[in-house]
């Protein structure tokens, strides 16, 4: 079964760009898969919710989205002790091949080159696609 890692910024796409992450990944990924994220990404969402920036609304919506995914059994939350990006890179390397990382973070994408992980990101602010 493939693992589709969701970065914090991808969890906020449903609010920011009206992107159906579940539907977009289903359109792109052939075969069975499970969504995975780290509890540290969820902590990032909690911290963003406390700010007075526009991203706080997106983070609130993302938290609800995460709970929805967990209730449906579509999201596995893994405990991490590292920063989110470090965890994603390590997890991708340990579980490659068969890992797909959903992120819009350009620096993280660069770090993932050579890891064997496939990358999915936002295209034209309207859909997800392989990068």
Description:
The protein is α/β, with parallel strands linked by helices and 131 residues long. The chain is built from seven helices and six strands, in the order βαααβααβαβαββ. The protein has helices at 8-11, 13-16, 21-28, 39-49, 55-71, 84-94, 106-112; strands spanning 2-6, 33-38, 75-78, 99-102, 118-123, 127-130. The chain has a six-stranded mixed sheet with strand order 3-2-1-4-5-6.
TL;DR?
By secondary structure, the chain is of the alpha/beta class. 47% of the residues lie in helices and 22% in strands.
Radius of gyration, CA atoms, in whole angstroms: 14 Å
On the 0 to 100 scale, the average pLDDT is: 93
Give the total of domains. Answer: 1
Q: Identify the overall geometry.
A: globular
Write the CATH fold name: Rossmann fold
How far apart the termini lie comes to 21 Å
CATH class: Alpha Beta
Low-confidence stretches: none
Number of β-strand runs: 6
- In helices, the fraction of residues equals 40-55%
Describe the largest sheet. 6 strands, mixed
Give me the secondary-structure category.
alpha/beta
Topology as a string of helices (H) and strands (E): EHHHEHHEHEHEE
β-strand percent reads 15-25%
CATH architecture: 3-Layer(aba) Sandwich
Summed up, the helix count is 7
> Could you give me the name of the CATH homologous superfamily?
5'-nuclease
- Major sheet: arrangement of strands: 3-2-1-4-5-6
């Amino acid at each position: 079964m493939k693992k589709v890692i969701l970065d914090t910024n991808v969890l906020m796409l449903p609010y920011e760009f009206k992107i159906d992450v579940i539907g977009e990944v289903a359109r792109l990924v052939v075969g069975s898969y499970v969504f995975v994220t780290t509890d540290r990404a969820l902590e990032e969402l909690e911290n963003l919710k406390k700010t007075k920036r526009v991203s706080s609304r997106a983070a609130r919506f993302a938290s609800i989205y995460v709970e929805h995914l967990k209730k449906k059994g579509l999201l596995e939350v893994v405990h991490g002790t590292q920063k989110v990006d470090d965890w994603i890179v390590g997890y991708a390397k340990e579980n490659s091949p068969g890992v797909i990382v959903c992120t819009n973070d350009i620096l993280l994408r660069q770090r993932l080159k050579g890891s064997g992980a496939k990358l999915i990101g936002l295209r034209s602010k309207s859909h997800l696609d392989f990068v």
